[in-house]
Structures are given as C-alpha cells and as structure tokens.
Amino acid sequence: MSTLIDTIFMKINRISPLEYNYLQIIDTIDNCPKKLYFMGKIPDMRLPTVAIIGTRKPTSYGKEVTYQLAFDLASRGVVIVSGLALGIDAIAHRGALDAGGITLAVLGNGLDTIYPANNQNLAKEILAKNGALISEYEPDVDARGFQFLERNRIVSGLSDAVIVTEAAIHSGTMSTVAHALEQGREVFVVPGNITSPLSAGCNKLIKQGAHPITCADDVLEVIAPDLLRPQSVLPLGSNKLESQIINLLQSGVRDGEELQIQTDTSASEFSQTLTMMEISGTIRALGGNQWTLR
Q: Is 234 a member of any domain?
C-alpha cells in the first residue's frame, strides 16, 4: 500500500493550471481540473512533451524499447510524462532521468503518499532532478481504481503526443489512448510480436490508424522537427571482436550466450570485452544476460 512521504520531499503546491504557461494545453481536456497540486518543478515555458504508457508487466522487448525511446526523446529536450505505475511508466521515467531530462509523474491520489510504494525512491529522484509529481487530488485522498482512470486524461492532456510501447487489448492504457484521441493528440505505437498478448493492443491500434514508431525521430518529425538531428553513425569497435558484437547487436541478437557463440571466442575474452564496451558506453545491459547498443 501507500507509504507516507518522508521529510525530504518538497512542499505540496496548489495552482490553477490555466494560469501556468506550461500547463495551459490542459484546457483541451474534458472535465478540466480547476486546480492541480504538485511537488517539484514544472517547466516555466511550454516544451515538447510526450506521454509514454503501457503495461505494468512488460516483456524484455517492452522494457528495452520503452527505455530507449524515453532516453532518446529526453536527451533531445522532450519532457516525458507518465503515471509512476510499475512497469512501462517507471521505465519511461527512468529512461528520462538517465538521459538528464525532465520527467513529470501524474498520480491518481493525493501527493502526501506515493503509490505504488515500490516507486518511492523513483519519485524522490524525479524531484531531485528538476521534475515534478502532479495530481488533481487533494492531500490525504487515497488511491482508488477509478481515480487512475480519471488521471489518464491528464497524462494525455499534458502531452503533445502519446506513445504506447506495449499493451494488451483490455487495459487502462487504452483509456489513455481514448482520451488522447478525444483531445486531438497524436498517438504513436510500437509494433509488437503478433503472438504476444502484450502487443495485441498495440497492433490493433496500428491497424486502426495510429502512427507506428520505431525510433524517437518518428515522433519528433511530427511534433518537434526542429529537434531532429542527423542520423547517428553506428559505433565502431576498437578491435575485431567489438566490431563483431556491435554488428550482431545491430542485427537483433541480444542474448549474451548467443553473442559469444556467434563470435566464436572464449568465455574470458568475451566477458572482458563486454565489460570494456559497457564501461565505454557502447553497449548497455538489459538484465538476464541480454545486451543492447547504447
């Protein structure tokens, strides 16, 4: 259950969103809140803003693409919005923080508590790195199921676009998409495995006309073309083995054992090379001996 926020958290502020430049976009949503509560720092001026949403139990694929999209967008100056829930929400916030960007979390309860409690440290880091926690609910209002559905309209309403990275057909994610469409927001969806239930919602949205997305540039081309930059060049390895690993990762191989087999190298040499590539920032560990390019 919820855990009381300790004293290192900042004071709770009450504002009228329509009097705050960055928040004025929210007047396009149904039942526009007359007041919002927040802790931390909300941007003074309007900045390109994207909501990233999805399942609470993502696959390794969902985790990877969510982190990468959030990281890439935040590194270009895009504000990342999500709901601080377990799964995709938390990964989106983490990707933005790791990129040195700004992320905003919209809660479905009063800001004197963090729900879920597992994300309390994440919430503290959002505040420490110039982000904010936002809610339409007064302090002392406990988390209830219907309130999370209500807050979804604010998640989309604060954003210029919504990205769905992984979601089943019947999920709260779809309510956020419905709000986004009603609000005239762009909806982007990551295509998924057609046999995976957690990609069924995404694939259905694409069939219904949502923008398919494979990289951050797909979003920036629509909402902020001035933030586009030349396509990055694939990193070069400092030796033959590093180059082989980079090429295999680029081709879609993620598993460490498979990488070692295909590079035909000893376990000790392979492990040392991975360590050096991780230190240099060329690759990133996904957990479970899975790897990807940074």
A: no
